[in-house]
Amino acid sequence: MSAVLHLLAHVGGRAIAVPADAVESVVDITKVVRAPRAHPAVRGLATLRSRVVTVVDTWRLLDLPAPDDESCRAIITVVDGHHHAVLVDTLEDVAPLDVQPLPPGLSLGWRWAAVATGSADRDGEPVLVIDIARLVETIVAAG
Amino acid sequence: MDDLLQEFIAETRETLAALSGEIVAWEADPADRGRLDAIFRFVHTVKGSCGFLDLPRLARLSHAAEDVLQAVRAGERAPDARLVTAVLAIIDRIGEIVEAIDAGAPLDDSGEDLLLAALTEKVEAAPLMLVAAEHAPGVAAPRAPARSIRLSVDLLDRMMNGVSEMVLARNELARRLRDSADPTLENAIDRLSLTVSELRDTVTRTRMQAIDSLFSALPRLVRDTAGVLDKKVSLAIDGADVELDREMIELLRDPMVHIVRNAIDHGIETPEERRRAGKPEAGRLAIAARQSGNRIIVEIADDGRGIDTARLVSKRIEQEPARAAELNALSERARLDLVFEPGLSTRDTVTATSGRGVGMDVVRTNVEQIGGTIKLRNVPGKGLTTTIEVPLTLAILSAVIISAGDDRYAVPRQAVEEIVAARSSAVRIDTVGDALLATVRGRRLPVVQLGAVLGTSDALGDMLMIVNLPGGSFALGVESVEDTQELVVKPVAPAVMAAGLYAGQMLPDTGVPLLLLDCAGVAAAAGVSFERVVVAEPEVEEPVAEGTPALMFEALDGQRRMIPLAAVERIEAVVAASIRQAGGRWWGTAREGVLALIVRDGVPPREGEAAALMLPGADTPTGYLVRRALDIVTYHDELLPSQDPAVRGILVLEGEPIEVIDPARLGDERAGEAAAPICLLQGEDTAWMEAMLTPLITAAGYRVARTLGAGEQAAVTLAVGDDAAADGQVVRLPRDPDTGRPLLDTDALASVLNMKAGR
């Protein structure tokens, strides 16, 4: 199995990896315009150069405690033609990873299970590989 | 070489499209040298290009056509219908071959010899005969092919994005430079600003195209369709210079072709039938485009037989007997709408052009997909008018920017009828049950508080926007209204769409995104719903379209009256204290200066403000004075007759009789107050008398005159001393023996005048 480039990040203290071809760019989100009555996991809209992106509150989506400081690092991904900024705690690195199936018997919880596609090993630390498009789509599915 | 070939193909294709209308026009008027030259040039260019591109077949065809056209130019041959048809066939063939080259597909050359033979003068060699339309289609002037290149819409979109980004960068730069306050830099940035703005306009315009590119193919389409069906059709095109989004034009093409074909096949009768019906032999097809706000309206009107709705219903019942009861109960309008049902065909035989029962439903779907509407106006025996209304562009919208709390939102300008201050005297807001009801100039509207819907604030806000939805209107309470901007609308992500409040997102120059509110969604979220009332009773719609809109106002005597809206140019506020009489007329001061006023049914108010309904067409701005304008009402009922000639009729509205003023009669009164009896001043002291007595005489209901016009008669003549009196009843004023001036006893004079006037 060949190694595929992945973007490594942390959300709620957990290490995740996102296939690099699903990532358009990584940015710092500054000003967010609220979108009242949209899904609670939608923090609002922000501008990325001349493009409007929808800012996704990843912690809310995965039912994790929000970080104390206003984190503004985000992964930009395009789902259904719409640009989304998926917020994360930190962004670490881009590295080739060997993706393995999830260890048998491991129960991730339904939120994570819906988006995880495999696992990998990064310097001894287990990393969960997630499908970022599916993560964004869970917002709509949850309605 | 490939590049050259591509260029040749694109150019030929473009010229072909522009040319087809020219050819038909030339056929109708063979003496038109300009058009003949245009066609000759095209064929000649093709021939020339074929030479060095090595395309022998095209060269042969174009060469033959060129020869024939040259002969026509030299006057050796007459351009009869057969010749034109043959030239058309050659040009079509050139088009086909060009498409085949582009697609890299083989095209067999059988038949080309026949086409060439048809160009010769021998009649029996003509394999193709089309019946020529007799009347000239409405192509106004020969066109010179525009210098143009083809671009993909994708590329344009990228340009548009680039320019938007540039605008943002410029704004950022300008902000930073303002802090540094260096005047030389400021000049430079101003120039940059200007250039960027111009560039943005240009790029926006690249998406626009004259609808001509859609219309130019129609003369040919009409000619061929009519020819196949043995009908005669004259085509009139209007508004070809109206511009709209390129993509929109492409999306309109199929619906247009379909409707035009339908009009000729189903609508316009054969010449024989038309003669019998007392119509001119050639049917008339009028196609017009116009812009109305940010919508484009395309009307396709024929003078054919219209749609036989009874037949439509029976046909439908034949197809679906189970629906018989439902179908028979339909209103006229709903019957007409059956045309849009899938699978319907009133044709008993399928023709080559239309009537296969696929069509109008697809047309409607296509038009609705691009945010448009399609309407039919049917007059059985007289014709059918199809109206397509589409937005100007898919992307740009005029938006009103409002703020609620710390956030700003956009509302489509088109949906906003009016914006009023919530505290203005014209607005009254009451709590009714748990809801708020706004009364704006007598009109009751449910209030939706934007802050409450968005969950940001409980306050009503300072401004009320009157928002129109398809089913009704409501007042949207917002904190403040900032400005109006033309912005590009992009769709919002599904996660945001799920809120049901937003129609799209926009990015203004500030770089802070804006959410475009979906007014229907906002109303629904607040529990305001207008749905289904109109849809359940579609008949109600019909008269609405044909009613007379009228302005309801409170007249000087406090009564509500109406005047046809068309007679009122605008409404001016008049300060009551400024209203006075002079020279036998009433005058008042408004924002734009002094207005002549028509005063009837009461006296002008002394204080506050009154309104002048400005009447068109007078030299002096003239207004009909009323206390205030109330509302615009559309009435459909017949008016009850009125005894007063100045009243067009009586309309009963909510049980109350309301006079509808006849604007033409208002004009009469204005035209010299002829109705007022004339008081003639006579003798050598008239100037002095006029100065002294005019107010008194006008107050008594007379018009002061020093001489009589033709046909005029004085009701009263004021004469001084023993001057000879001329006309009517004479009032003599004695002369003061000391001064020689007439003696004025104003009380006595007033009582005499009032008596004479019968008051």
Automatic annotation (TrEMBL), chain A:
SUPFAM superfamilies: CheW-like. One of its GO terms (cellular component) is cytosol. One of its GO terms (biological process) is signal transduction. Transmembrane segments: none annotated. It comes from the Bacteria. Residues 3-141 form the CheW-like domain. SMART domains: CheW. This is CheW-like domain protein. It comes from Sphingomonas dokdonensis.
TrEMBL record, chain B:
Involved in the transmission of sensory signals from the chemoreceptors to the flagellar motors. CheA is autophosphorylated; it can transfer its phosphate group to either CheB or CheY. One of its GO terms (biological process) is chemotaxis. Residues 143-394 form the Histidine kinase domain. InterPro entries: Bact_Chemotaxis_CheA, CheA-like_dim, CheA-like_homodim_sf, CheW-like_dom_sf, CheW-lke_dom, HATPase_C_sf, HATPase_dom, His_kinase_dom. It catalyses: ATP + protein L-histidine = ADP + protein N-phospho-L-histidine. Residues 396-528 form the CheW-like domain. Signal peptide: none annotated. SUPFAM superfamilies: ATPase domain of HSP90 chaperone/DNA topoisomerase II/histidine kinase, CheW-like, Histidine-containing phosphotransfer domain, HPT domain, Homodimeric domain of signal transducing histidine kinase. This is Chemotaxis protein CheA. Keywords: Kinase, Phosphoprotein, Transferase, Two-component regulatory system. PANTHER family: CHEMOTAXIS PROTEIN CHEA, SENSOR HISTIDINE KINASE CHEA. The modification Phosphohistidine is found at H44. It holds the Pfam family HATPase_c. The gene is cheA. It comes from Sphingomonas dokdonensis. The lineage of its organism: Bacteria, Pseudomonadati, Pseudomonadota, Alphaproteobacteria, Sphingomonadales. One of its GO terms (cellular component) is cytoplasm. The keyword Transmembrane helix does not apply.
